[in-house]
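In response to the reviewer comment on reproducibility (Comment 2.3), we provide here a single inverse folding case reported in full, input and output, so that an independent group could reproduce the run without further information from us. The structure tokens appear first.
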């Protein structure tokens, strides 16, 4: 009975209700493609039921940005008017429904403890890192058929990249994106922290998770993570005049960099190869991003104003792949080119306007977390179609309008 009372008091103190618990379930299960939709569906159903019961108390408040987000989703519906592959187009519409559901949800439900929600996300990411690393260590020590068991073997392709996250079949690029955002939240804690021991513990957590990120071989995430952590730590610690902790942090970063150069050869060589590919451009003999992007140009030129429609992009793109001897059946690996192919320059302009609005709001309100969140999404959109997969769609939709609309102004 006493434990039950303590739990109720904890919920009341932290403004936790059934809706908030379901929202925590959403942000804590981004990695789970089958479980995450269940939480989203439950969240919307329960909130809809509560709205129906208390319809006289509903305060539906919108913003210009809200309507821009809905307009971005409406492009998919408009694109159905001139698409031929209706089935694929319908799949796109249903997959991206979160772009509409979450903005509507946040206009009627006030998240009273955003910090608690962000902490839950950080804890969930750390929990998945522990699970992935533990499973990998188990395979390394008890399932390996290669000896000796040394660091070189552990950091080889057999235990890194997609192999590292195979226990849940999680795409390492998307999980790398989650890790970076968790690091942004941790850096914000460092900015606010007043006790040195807490700052040191948080810096150590950044280092440990960054080493795991190296193991994922998520190239864009590794580079972006290094930039965000180094620049943010230097700025925050210099501003707070914590020079001793800054020295300690820089020493840790140097040690981490040295360890990576000595033992993490695979991710470093992959990053080097990606840079070489970009320099070689379309003339490379390998299947590079530049060759894939070049194949999209004829599709864009064919319907540059309004695009090819919601469902026809893959068919046209794969036809260009065959013409250019690219043996792939994937997407264009660039969200900007994807919008340009689907909805033309008008659709791309709307897409870029949304990012511009996000950055303007983040700078205006001194919202470090939202600014970095937007930068992460924008950079990742250059190398992946992150808003074409559930892993990216729900991550962006669940946090974007919340950070824009409800995060406290400073």
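Designed residues, in position order:
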């Amino acid at each position: 009975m006493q434990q039950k009372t303590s739990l109720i008091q904890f919920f009341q103190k932290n403004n936790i209700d059934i809706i908030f618990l379901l929202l925590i379930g959403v942000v804590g299960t981004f990695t789970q493609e089958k479980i995450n939709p269940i939480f989203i569906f439950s969240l919307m159903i329960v909130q809809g039921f509560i709205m129906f019961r208390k319809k006289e108390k509903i305060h539906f408040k919108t913003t210009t940005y809200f309507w821009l987000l809905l307009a971005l989703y409406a492009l998919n519906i408009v694109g159905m008017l001139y698409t031929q592959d209706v089935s694929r187009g319908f799949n796109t519409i249903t997959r991206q429904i979160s772009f509409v559901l979450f903005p509507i949800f946040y206009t009627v439900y006030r998240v009273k403890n955003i910090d608690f929600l962000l902490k839950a996300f950080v804890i969930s990411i750390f929990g998945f890192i522990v699970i992935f690393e533990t499973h990998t260590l188990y395979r390394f020590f008890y399932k390996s058929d290669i000896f000796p068991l040394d660091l070189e073997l552990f950091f080889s392709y057999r235990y890194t990249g997609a192999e590292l996250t195979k226990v849940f079949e999680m795409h390492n690029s998307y999980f790398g994106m989650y890790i970076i955002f968790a690091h942004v939240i941790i850096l914000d804690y460092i900015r606010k922290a007043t006790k040195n021991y807490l700052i040191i513990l948080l810096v150590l957590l950044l280092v440990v998770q960054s080493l795991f990120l190296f193991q994922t071989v998520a190239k864009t995430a590794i580079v972006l993570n290094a930039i965000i952590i180094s620049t943010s730590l230097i700025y925050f610690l210099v501003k707070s005049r914590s020079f001793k902790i800054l020295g300690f942090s820089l020493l840790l970063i140097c040690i981490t960099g040295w360890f990576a150069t000595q033992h993490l050869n695979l991710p470093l060589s992959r990053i080097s190869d990606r840079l070489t590919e970009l320099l070689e451009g379309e003339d490379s003999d390998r299947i590079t991003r530049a060759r894939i992007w070049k194949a999209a140009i004829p599709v864009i030129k064919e319907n540059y104003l309004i695009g090819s429609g919601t469902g026809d992009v893959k068919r046209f793109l794969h036809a260009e792949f065959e013409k250019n001897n690219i043996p792939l059946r994937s997407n264009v690996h660039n969200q900007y080119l994807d919008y340009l192919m689907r909805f033309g320059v008008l659709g791309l302009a709307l897409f870029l306007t949304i990012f511009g609005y996000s950055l303007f709001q983040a700078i205006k309100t001194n919202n470090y977390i939202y600014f970095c969140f937007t930068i992460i999404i924008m950079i990742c959109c250059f190398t992946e179609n992150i808003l074409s997969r559930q892993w990216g769609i729900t991550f962006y939709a669940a946090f974007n309008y919340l950070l824009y609309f409800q995060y406290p102004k400073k």
